[in-house]
Amino acid sequence: MNPAEGPAADFLRQFIALGHYGQARDVAGMVAYLAGPGGRHVSGSSILVDGGFAA
């Protein structure tokens, strides 16, 4: 789903608030947070790790 290498990569990048495509470590950071004490009271949520693309 990450078009960073696709034909429309440069065009789509302009719609990402942070200006760059995410990497696996970006998602891993959120997973680690939710699995730790910070996420102990989080349930039934949909959390986007998309650099602001959907915002």
Number of domains: 1
Mean pLDDT score, rounded? 89
Report Rg: 13 Å
How much of the sequence lies in strands comes to: under 5%
* Amino-to-carboxy terminus distance: 18 Å
The string of secondary-structure elements, in order, is HH
Category by helix and strand content: mainly alpha
Keywords:
55 residues, 0% strand, elongated
Describe this structure in words.
The chain has 2 helices and no strands. The chain has one domain: Orthogonal Bundle (Helicase, Ruva Protein, domain 3). It has 55 residues and is mainly α. The two termini are 18 Å apart. It is elongated and about 40 Å long. Helix content is 31%, strand content 0%.
Could you give a quick summary of the protein structure above?
This protein is an all-alpha fold and 55 residues long. It is 31% helix and 0% strand. It starts with 8 loop residues before the first helix and ends in a 20-residue tail after the last helix.
